[in-house]
Write a structure and sequence with these properties.
The complex is a heterotrimer of chains A (about 300), B (about 500) and C (about 375). Chain A has about 300 residues and is mainly α. Chain A contains 13 helices and 2 strands, in the order H-H-H-H-E-H-E-H-H-H-H-H-H-H-H. In chain A, strands 1-2 form a two-stranded antiparallel sheet. Chain B has a domain of about 230 residues: P-loop containing nucleotide triphosphate hydrolases (Rossmann fold). Helices cover about 30% and strands about 25% of the residues of chain B. In chain B, strands 13, 16, 19, 20, 21, 22 and 23 form a 7-stranded mixed beta sheet that branches. In chain B, strands 6-7-8-3-9-10 form a 6-stranded mixed beta sheet, with helices on both faces. In chain B, strands 2-1-4-5 form a 4-stranded antiparallel beta sheet, covered by helices on one side. Classes of the chains: A mainly alpha (about 300), B alpha/beta (about 500), C mainly alpha (about 375). Chain A: It comes from Rubellimicrobium roseum.
């Protein structure tokens, strides 16, 4: 056992990296849920993004194009969900589950020829000056561009939801779709766009796993990250800035867990690997028990089908 | 006579199985309040939605200010100067007043400027509002103000108001009317939809009456009696329920210092509610919507548990009893929302009969359901209460509002309750069905049951209650004999005008 | 343009027709997929759906059908009650693992007794293990209002880690020369869940699945509990008004699905699988979700859907061997089936109508039967 080998600065820096896939996926789902739709297919879209992104990157040699391919893959899968849920009025829970099962199958089918190949590496992008700040520099400003993109998307989503007319409309649709319809807003069109955004973000998150974190294609590479992303949205009470906190918490747990494994702590490996999932449950309990506050923040129309009546 | 603002010519709209509007034609003038009268299902709301661009007519044309007018969506209607205040408010609880208003405008100014405009306009018309407050925390009357201000900020030429007074106290109605008259004098046309005839007589200069989707009459409400207008609406003569008062029996239901917080998010807590009802008596409980009616029903039906002694049935504490146990002891309830609360819309009438009839009608033995007996019970309800339906095998949601309400009330009455509590028994029900339901409640009382009627319809309560009490912000006034209560007194019992200012009218 | 219009009454005809149509649509789409993978689509579909029943190796594959269908049906029947009531236990895979673990642990504590009581004791322990695992999300939901979907699913990952831990630690075969995995239970007569009728594939798990279908049918059609479940799923407020306690319903439905999943795990570990090993679970708990929906949450439907899904498993394996069709293609195929079913469900609740055509209600006389003149 060697706990001394764990450097807190390195730990925090790798926390930033470890939290990025969950952050991206959760951010997309947050927007989807704010529009009043519950998409439980995050895991499926993530893993689809992981393989389409990986395949694109291998084919083109460009990680950037890989991430683009991942976003497209995740969004394409989300279209199936959107059509079923929005126009064919299927049950959102069942359809989301189906999307996850389908996505896992699709990814492993596409991934057949990609086992054991290495992805082109994504370059680190040190931010000038800022990266030289002691402690803070290595933690925040010496990462690849996707980490910064994740942070930028959080800020952008916050700005969109709270400061723009379109964001207000999106929240209105999620809050009370009948009232929004009565005012003449296009509930289904808006939700479709939100679902597409959610799919693209989940795809990006998946690709970050297969292109940067691992970085190669293995079956089941997401290992429940999509589900943890769903939990973080609840944790964040549907607020973008709190989402960041949630993602860092889980990034921290998984990094710490891996470090403890590497340091040969006298705890069975399996118990350490359980930690992120157990912590998720614990956090859900803490959030939900806060005198119904989590439910208070949930969008009013979340999970309900919308059918314009006469 | 002022100019015609909106001319409606030959509007027809059909849905599968029903013609909602058939060849409807009439004119609405500028600077006038025009009433649209009709029973539920007469086609009022389809017509209004057509004018507001939510429904496109199959046949027919409209002209607004002399120009052809066929809005494909509400946005276009708003742009043309048509605004609407909805019956079921189209508001967003989680958003604040300013955000709600911005959502209803085409090109809203930045929120800060809008907030200032809201404060200004709301004071100008005597409807004060705080733009920063969350709409979920507002009272029903305040929520309506949000809708009205939202309309007024667009400076519309035509303002449509769908049943605006059903959520207001008499004093609040008076303030609203003052605002509407002020708007009319400024040249606005108002299309006013209601079934409250006395209000229409007080406010409107013209009335168009719809029945079965057609225009059956037009009149000047100022010179037409309420009874005459009611008969034109219904297409026949009306009979008022007859009753033989029994009264003076033993007390069966006692509610003492009932205090409970609401299980719902924006609900009203019950505070120290105390009343009692005797055999053979009808107690009417009035109040504006959202003052604790739903919570009171939940506490009586057993869906919300309280301290044992807060609710006593025949002297026994039942505050902690579950709904089925209360039914077994003779306390039956019919909640307000017939679709989804009193009945399951997607289930058959047989299954819905079983829903509450299980215990008292002996429809299940050792956990196994006797569907044959349940079907016979459903058929008995259908027959005794003249429920129009092909049979007990159809889904509850295929019934019209009035028929489902007759089924729901009939289901409880046929179980011979000792106490029956009903909430809004005739809400949204056509006049004939409403009269039948009221008569059935009176008959039940004269057979020796105690009946509690919670309603927002004061005319109904005055018609059938022996004693009257009012719910206001979760508190119940002492019950008073219903006979001889004046509207003024009732209004004060209902809490008067909640913080409403008298309009600073300026001419 | 086509518009949807809600039916006044759900269509019974479509309720029966949609699963069949979904299967046909999946065969077509699956055929296209197989063709895209460079396989003969007709041959592939035939290999999957026909050969396991009537092909050259049918005498071997037919018993496999029941062996695979047994756990799927058992788990799906349990899940269907919760799904009807709007209680989403999607962690059946974890409950299945826990059932196998606790059942095997209790059994192995008595090794090498040859008492007849061991197997029933193991079944009870397995069911209890599944129930206990399922009650975690149930109790957390009741007490704290946590989302049962997320908690039950997180517990699957916890359970797989527990499985690995048990296979390498406490339950490892002391005579196994360090190989991961427990003693072989199917070779210990007191604990073995053997084929009861040679050549049929019927073991105790299959019998249990059959019983579960019958009991579930009675519960759903005739029992107050079944009524409460349906009511709570369709309109929760009406259920509260009728006197159904939401917490009790959550407990009952979760315990039921957990117990059946746990028992399924036990039957599997003592029979077809034979031992606790790291890769003991093969996704029955997730596939059972598809089975439950495909069977329209109805016991008889689930019976048929379970058999069909078992067929795709076995046929898929054959296609893998004979046509080298990738295993993932079958998983995708099963996912497609669920999509098509969900998509076609719309026809049960809604009617399609061409927008634009004026709808004029038929005069009353036309609705009455016409007399022959």
């Amino acid at each position: 056992m060697d706990l001394g080998g764990i450097s807190p600065i390195l730990l925090l820096a790798s926390l930033m990296v470890a939290s990025t896939p969950i952050l991206l996926a959760a951010l997309g789902e947050l927007v989807v849920e704010r529009a009043g739709v519950l998409n439980l297919g995050v895991e499926g879209m993530m893993i689809t993004g992981a393989i389409t992104g990986f395949a694109t990157a291998v084919a083109t040699g460009s990680p950037a194009l890989g991430f683009l391919g991942a976003a497209a893959g995740g969004a394409a899968l989300s279209v199936i969900f959107a059509v079923l849920v929005l126009w064919l009025k299927s049950n959102q829970v069942a359809t989301g589950l189906a999307l996850t099962l389908f996505g896992l199958g699709l990814a492993s089918l596409i991934g057949q020829g990609y086992q054991g190949i290495r992805a082109p590496s994504t370059a680190r992008l040190d931010i000038p000056l800022l990266s030289d700040i002691p402690a803070l520099g290595p933690i925040l400003f010496r990462h690849d561009w996707v980490v910064y993109l994740g942070l930028a998307l959080v800020a952008g989503t916050w700005w969109f939801l709270s400061r723009t007319r379109a964001g207000l409309t999106l929240r209105a649709v999620g809050e009370n779709h009948d009232a929004a319809h009565a005012l003449g807003y296009h509930v289904l069109r808006l939700r479709f766009l939100a679902i597409l955004f959610g799919g693209a973000c989940a795809g990006l998150g998946g690709a970050y796993l297969s292109l940067v974190r691992v970085p190669q294609w293995t079956e089941g590479v997401t290992a429940g990250a999509g589900w943890i992303a769903l939990a973080i949205v609840v944790f964040a009470s549907w607020r973008p800035l709190r989402l960041l906190l949630g993602a860092w918490l889980f990034g921290g747990i998984s990094v710490l867990q891996l470090n403890l494994q590497a340091a040969n702590v006298p705890v069975p490996v399996e118990v350490l690997s359980m930690a992120p999932y157990l912590v998720t449950i614990l956090v859900l309990v803490l959030i939900s028990s806060g005198r119904g506050r989590a439910r208070l923040a949930a969008p009013g129309s979340l999970g309900q089908p919308f059918h314009a009546s006469r | 006579m002022s100019d015609v603002l909106l001319a409606i010519r030959g509007l027809t709209k059909a849905y599968p199985g029903v013609i909602a509007n058939s060849d409807v034609s009439f004119d609405i003038r500028s600077a006038s309040v025009h009433a649209l009268l009709g029973e539920n299902g007469a086609g009022k709301s389809t017509l209004v939605k057509t004018i507001y661009g939510l429904v496109r007519p199959d046949v027919g044309t409209m002209a607004l200010g002399g120009r052809p007018y066929a809005p494909p969506e509400p946005r276009a209607a708003r742009a043309a100067g048509v605004a609407m205040v909805f019956q079921h408010f189209s508001l967003f609880d989680a958003l604040d007043v300013a955000e709600n208003i911005a959502l209803g405008m085409e090109n809203p100014p930045p929120l800060r400027d809008l907030a200032a405009r809201i404060t200004e306009v709301s004071h100008e018309y005597g409807l004060p509002l705080d733009p920063r407050r969350s709409v979920g925390d507002l009272s029903a009357g305040e929520r309506q103000r949000v809708e009205i201000i939202r309309c007024l900020l667009q400076s519309p030429r035509l303002l449509i108001m769908d049943e605006p007074t059903s959520v207001l106290t008499p004093q609040e109605v008076e303030i609203l009317f003052r605002t509407l008259r002020q708007l009319r004098d400024e040249g606005m046309a108002i299309l006013y939809i209601s079934h409250k005839l006395e209000e229409i007589r007080a406010l409107c200069e013209e009335a168009t009456i719809l029945r079965g989707g057609r225009v059956v009459a037009t009149c000047d409400p100022r010179v037409t009696s309420a009874r005459r207008m009611a008969e034109m609406m219904v297409g026949g003569t009306l009979r008022t329920p007859a009753r033989t008062s029994v009264g003076g029996g033993e007390v069966v239901l006692e509610v003492a210092s009932l205090t409970a917080s609401s299980p719902r998010l924006h609900g009203t807590a019950l505070r120290d509610v105390t009343f009692s009802v005797s055999r053979g008596e009808v107690l009417g409980i009035g109040g504006v919507a959202g003052n604790g009616q739903d919570e009171l029903l939940l506490a009586l039906s057993g869906e919300m548990r309280t301290a044992p002694g807060m609710v006593r049935l025949k002297g026994e504490p039942v505050g902690t009893c579950r709904p089925s146990e209360r039914r077994a002891r003779g306390l039956l309830c019919a909640p307000e929302e017939r679709n989804g609360h009193a009945s399951a819309p997607d289930m058959t009438l047989t299954e819905n009969a079983f829903l509450t009839g299980r215990v008292r009608e002996g429809l299940a033995r050792r956990g196994l359901v006797n569907w044959g007996a349940a079907t016979r019970f459903a058929e008995r309800i259908i027959q005794s209460f003249d429920v129009r339906t092909p049979g007990p095998g159809v889904a509850a949601r295929s019934l019209s509002g009035g028929n489902l309400q007759k089924f729901v009330i009939g289901r409880e009455i046929l179980q011979r309750p000792e106490v029956l509590v009903v909430n809004q028994p005739t809400w949204g029900v056509d006049a004939a069905a409403a009269a039948a339901i009221r008569q059935a409640l009176l008959d039940l009382a004269s057979q020796g049951a105690a009946v509690v009627v919670v309603s927002q319809d004061l005319d109904e309560l005055m018609e059938i209650s022996d004693r009257f009490a009012a719910l206001n912000e979760g508190r119940l006034s002492p019950a008073r004999p219903a006979r001889g209560l004046s509207v003024e007194e009732i209004g004060l019992l209902l809490g008067g005008a909640h913080g409403m200012e008298v309009a600073h009218a300026h001419h | 343009m086509i518009v949807l219009e809600k039916r006044p009454n759900p269509s019974r005809a479509w309720a029966f027709a949609t699963p069949v149509l979904a299967v046909i649509a999946t065969m077509i789409a699956g055929g296209l997929l197989f063709a895209a993978l460079g396989k003969d689509p007709v041959l592939a579909i035939r290999t999957i759906f026909w050969d396991p029943l009537f092909g050259d190796f049918a005498s071997y594959t037919r018993p496999q059908l029941l062996i695979k269908a047994g756990p799927l049906i058992l788990i799906a029947v349990g899940l269907s009650f919760g799904f009807r009531a709007g209680i989403w236990n999607i962690g059946a895979e974890g409950q299945y693992i826990l059932g196998a673990l606790t059942g095997a642990a209790v059994g192995l504590a008595f090794y090498p007794t040859e008492s007849r009581l061991v197997f029933p004791l193991m079944v009870a322990a397995g069911a209890l293990g599944g129930i206990a695992w399922a009650l975690i999300p149930a109790l957390l939901k009741i007490r704290f209002g946590t989302n049962e979907i997320l908690v039950s699913l997180m517990l699957v990952y916890v359970a797989t880690n527990l499985l690995a831990y048990a296979a390498l630690g406490p339950l490892q075969n002391p005579e196994g020369m360090g190989f991961p995995g427990s003693r072989n239970l199917s070779q210990w007569l007191a604990a073995a869940n053997l084929e009861l009728f040679p050549g049929t594939g019927i073991h105790w798990g299959v019998i249990a699945a059959g019983l579960a279908v019958i009991v579930a049918h009675v519960l759903l059609a005739r029992h107050v509990f079944g009524f409460a479940v349906r009511l709570a799923g369709q309109s929760p407020r009406a259920a509260a008004f009728a006197g159904v306690s939401p917490s009790r319903l959550v407990l009952a439905c979760m315990a039921m699905s957990g117990g059946l999943a746990g028992a399924a795990g036990l039957f599997e570990v003592t029979g077809p699988a034979g031992q606790i090993s790291i890769d003991f679970n093969v996704g029955y708990g997730f596939t059972a979700i598809i089975v439950a929906f495909l069977g329209r949450l109805h016991p008889v439907g689930i019976l048929l859907a379970g058999l069909l899904m078992a067929l795709t498993y076995i046929g898929g394996e054959m296609a893998q061997l004979q046509l080298s069709l990738p295993a993932a293609a079958i998983q995708l195929f099963q996912g497609m089936l669920l999509f098509f079913l969900l998509a076609m469900d719309v026809l049960t609740q809604f009617r399609l109508r061409w927008k634009g055509a004026p709808v004029v209600p038929a005069p009353a006389a036309a609705a009455a039967p016409q007399e022959a003149s």
